[in-house]
Amino acid sequence: MTQPVQHFHIAGKDYLEYNDKSHIYVVDRKGKTLIKPLEPIQISENNEFSLINPRSHKEAKFVITDVNGKVISIGLDGKTKETDLGRYPANHWFEMYDMDGDGVKDYVFAWGNNLKVISQKGNVIFNIATGSNLSKRPVFYDLPKHTVAIGLVTADDNKIYLYDRAGNLWKGFPLKGNTQFSLDVVKNSENRFNLMVGSENNLLNLYSVQ
Questions:
Q1: 182-185 vs 24-27, strand pairing mode
Q2: CA–CA distance from 54 to each of 4, 13, 121, 138 (Å)?
Q3: pLDDT tens for residues 111-142?
Q4: Angle value at C-alpha 39, between 94 and 25, nearest 5 degrees
Q5: Are 15 and 24 in contact (CB under 8 A)?
Q6: Among 96, 62, 65, CA closest to 78
Q7: Are 80 and 63 a contacting pair, CB within 8 Å?
Q8: What phi and psi, each to the nearest 5 degrees, are found at residue 81?
Q9: Structural domains of the chain, ranges and CATH numbers in brackets
Q10: For residues 129 and 111, is the Cβ–Cβ distance under 8 A?
């Protein structure tokens, strides 16, 4: 297996997914095969599956990328669909997250020093380019007032970045740090956060972010 076993709950039923480099297996809790995709897929090694439309057996789909960055959607009937949104290196990161707040998950690709968010309709929502290559996969934060943010790390230059849902760099960033970081709302405040991150020389930095 290239990633840990994943558990999904779809319309009242449990699905367990695991995969090797070219095959996907979906079984129930007793190990009975539930989905058999029609053909092998060269699955990107850095990524786990995302799930869309989990309330409907007809509309539910498992989503992953192949080694070239093509988006592969797999229905519960085993049928696959490829969506070409550009070519990406084999070691890219891929996530699905609702960045624009329309209730529909968007495609998020990260590679090199770049991050791109694309809607399911194929429209680019925003692009980000950092000064150095990303060293960790992006982290998504659910914040008060129904907003979200993306955290990025470039360990080579000891910097961390926080971007809002429109791709704008958060005020005061980048900050010093070289690990993924935690972001917690300050008690009795919707606009201030405590950020904790590892940094150079085994230091732990604590920031107040607004």
A1: unpaired
A2: 20, 10, 19, 23
A3: 999 999 999 999 999 999 999 999 999 999 99
A4: 65
A5: no
A6: 62
A7: no
A8: -135, 135
A9: 6-178 (2.130.10.10)
A10: no
Q: What residues does 197 pair with on adjacent strands?
A: 205
Cβ atoms 69, 85 nearer than 8 A: yes
* pTM of this prediction exceeds 0.85: yes
Reported as a single tens digit per residue, the pLDDT across 138-192 is 999 998 877 899 999 999 999 999 999 999 999 999 999 999 999 988 776 667 8
CA 13 to chain centre: 24
Q: Alpha carbon of 92 to those of 115, 191, 210: distances in Å? A: 10, 33, 31
Residues in contact with 86: Cβ distance below 8 Å, sequence separation at least 6, in sequence order: 69, 109, 116
Alpha-carbon span 180 to 160, nearest angstrom: 8
Q: What is the DSSP letter of 40?
A: -
Q: What is the identity of the amino acid at 203?
A: L
Contact 49, 17 (CB under 8 A): yes
- Angle (CA) 71-168-104 rounded to 5° is 40
Which residue is it, tokens 């790390």? 153
Query: Between the CA of residue 194 and those of 9, 107, 146, 197, 205, what are the distances in Å?
Result: 33, 28, 18, 10, 10
